[in-house]
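Office hours follow-up: a student asked to see two folded examples consecutively, so here they are.
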Amino acid sequence: MKLDYRIEVTGPGGPRFDEILTPAALAFVAKLDNAFAGRRAELLDARRLRREKIRSGEETLGFLPETASIRGDDSWHVAPAAPGLEDRRVEITGPTDRKMTVNALNSGAKVWLADFEDATSPTWHNVIDGQLNLFDAIRRAIDFTTESGKHYSVGETPATIVARPRGWHLVEKHIRIDGRPVSASLVDFGLYFFHNARQLIARGRGPYFYLPKLESHHEARLWNDVFLLAQDELGIPRGTVRATVLIETITAAFEMDEILYELREHVAGLNAGRWDYIFSVIKNFSEHGADFVLPDRAQVTMTVPFMRSYTELLVRTCHKRGAHAIGGMAAFIPSKDPKVNTVAIEKVRADKEREAGDGFDGSWVAHPGLVPVCREVFDEVLGGWPNQLGKLREDVVVTAEDLLDVASAGGEVTEAGVRGNINVALRYIDAWLGGTGAAAIHNLMEDAATAEIARCQVWQWIRNGTKLEDGTALTHELTVSYVDEELASIRAELGHSRLDDARAIFEETALGEKLPSFLTTSAYARYLTA
């Protein structure tokens, strides 16, 4: 059959790329994109308009009156847990490179979040190589030996794979339909689903996904319609797909019931993040003054009142509807220093104990070394049960004012905090430009959300003339001097040329008048075409 459109792959070839970029797979992606490109663009426009209204004070956030009947109806529930998703007490996250794929599957975690999003620098090679690695892993054909002679192979009880495509706001510039770039979400989802859905089902699992950066239930409805079309196209029963939605924007926090409702045939649960959620607060309320200025990044923990309100509401909402509630990230990387390990692991344990005690069904770790810690905590709380769906948390009452009480975070902004944000952002952007999306920095596994929160906090502090602990106001000039000093320190350690571009990206996105994403900068665009 002759196509009435032209689909073009403009990215360079690579070993076995043709196994992923088959004509049939590309036609499948094109069918999805052609069906939903218009709605996606409308929803992104609606995002921008809503954000501008919130930012200007023309509109505020609250629970939607037009969907009160959905929130108030106790009769509806989501689909039951799919095979491999009944028990999610420990989930490990990470990019889809070959070594990480094997290590994550063998980590002892119940679930691996195979990440095409924040933990992957979206170079063309990383995008397609990641698809190849998942293709091989699902078929148990991923065994390999490194040049040093170390052998990697997947064990007998691997983690369940849950793939995370990129968000609705991104495009994949290397695949074009009639000259326009295709939605990155649909490239990641479509290629993975087309090649692996039937294979996963045959192996007793299914095509499972994490959905990032949703800002409304309308965006969840779009994903549901994508799932329906994809299943119909491949002759797979409706309701086979399962999705866990990351509630990582302040707007989505007010629509958790509605998001579950829109995806009720396909949803598995909701996840509580931190950095992207805080980034969303800053982005939406950037013009609202001191009440929305946050302290040092390290002080904005999940226990500050406005964050605790969000996580407790998430657990209550999920369990009322029969969905899993998944906790946030433990980003610590085990160190060779036993003292550092002892202190950090106790903090991780306390964090997981809080989550388990609050009713979460499981939680995230970034390193295989933390799987036992998280598992021990949840084993103790769960006993012989696979989850805590029976813990309804009917004691939780959260108002719109609770979710917006950012001032309740308290704390202070310090010179060390500002410098820390600058240092981590520069180091991460440098790694990201080099093709690494999950970077070990100061004993923590950092991803793109780190760079976003680090640089947007600096932007917010400068814009508000925030005073440091000694009373000094943080100005543009003072911040530039900190950037100079931190960059010199990093350059002395790393010594390579990407740091100039890392600085350019940081300054464009943290020191300017507006608050753009670092994904949109001209410096990064040069790397994206590589």
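And the second, which I mentioned at the end of office hours:
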Amino acid sequence: MGSGETYDIVVVGSGGGGLVGAYVAASRGLRTLVIEKTGRVGGTTAYSGAGLWFPGSAPLRRAGVEDSIENARTYLRDVVADESREHLQDAYLDAGRALIDELEQNSWFQSFVYGGPVPDYFDSAPGASPAGRTIFPPNIAIADLGEHAGLVRDSLPVERLGARRGEVFDGGRALIGRALAAFLETGNGTLLLDTRLEELVVEDGRVTGVTASSAGERTTFRAGRGVLLAAGGFERDAELRQKHHPVPLDGTWSNGAPGNTGDALRAGVAVGADTDLLDEAWYVPGLVQPDGLPLFHTGTRGGIWVNAAGERFVNETRPYDQAGHELVRLHRSTGVAHIPCHWVFDQRHLDRDSFGGDPGLPPDPAWFESGALRKADSLEELAKLIEVPYDTLRKTVEEYNGYSGTGVDARFHRGESPWDKSYLHMVGFPAGPVMNYPPKPSPGWANPLLLPLDTPPFYVATIVLSDIGTKGGLKTDEHARVLRPDGGPIPGLYATGNTMAAMSGHVYPGAGTPIGSSLAFAYRAVLDIVGATED
């Protein structure tokens, strides 16, 4: 085993939290090493829209969004409903605003933007914002990143399905590209790809470095000030998932980055770290693609989902984490299979919304050739295709069509919440956080998200339980210091992102909570390392 260089900080992982934390450290003059297990930077952040749920941040104020930190605090207290996490919530709220103020001073990050309403997910909770609290990084031309662009992980459609890359990075790839360039430009940053964490180095009770492997060789890198674990969760590790999770998933359906197999979690536990929420994930519905694997499905604007009995069971447009958790709950508790379930729609929906491609174009033949999308001339034929009782499916569709006529989904209330209404712009109507539906919009349906199922042919696609990462991990304090079971910190060891047990507990408060948490607690970690505060 070789001995590598000594740094002030070693960061394990190159997702949003890892790279932003590394930049914050390097910009303060600390020699900072980032090790990345795979050959590209970005982790799951690169697959994402890079929303950041940062209440009170400057981009929200610039956009005229009326809100306050106290409202956001009230909201978090109510939806998380866990006093043991209140100190983490307060740290998160303080760090988000301060971090954005700092990043916007760097020309690589420029100005984050509020892109319009992304309503909080629990709209009836005290303090919920129908306008949302989510901000995004600005797009960046790939050419502007120069040689750094080739290091950034592609989006899932490009990486897995062969979609065209384009000339601009948006969402997560924009954040990652900007953070990578800013980090390396400090002159204090080093990046090592294809370098896997093997174990943490502990001396006299303090974490003083990491042992990593690359090309079959192990090297120890010293960290004089601290180690920040930002290596994602364990969503791609079948053993850990089957040990801790409530449904038998092996990671195949996950939309987390392929390197997220719990290396940092295991390394932390090996040096005495406590854990929490290991049974949890950022669950999402996944629409099975022609390659046989799912992509994160944010919400359904038409048609219905039915279980193995042919029954509708959920508001198909509800916030994705809630829909994912409902799949888990019903699959475990009802005796009827809900994973997978069937998305049933008709030609009217297809004509309006398209499917799996650009609006106005028919589905790519690969959908039908692979069986990911199937077609039937009648509901009876479709029931045979998906092996559900026809009489039950017929009654389910009749009930749904009745709701379509009135515009009111009496069972599941699709189209009523601010989140649901944010989908209106996708079906040809202006959307706002508190708007009402236009009176009798063309072609005359009172609720554009409840078009009837009555126009053959009928289609069916498959929805499975996916995720955008696990959310259980190492237990930390408000400074992102990793804790022992007795509540004391392990000196020199910090964690953030999905390596850290989520500050939001079992819930997903709003768009951008996972990546927002990753950035916020990476920032808190570095501030603690340098002995500063966010004030």
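Two things to take away from it. The first strand starts at residue 2 and ends at 12. Residues 430-442 have pLDDT under 50 and may be disordered.
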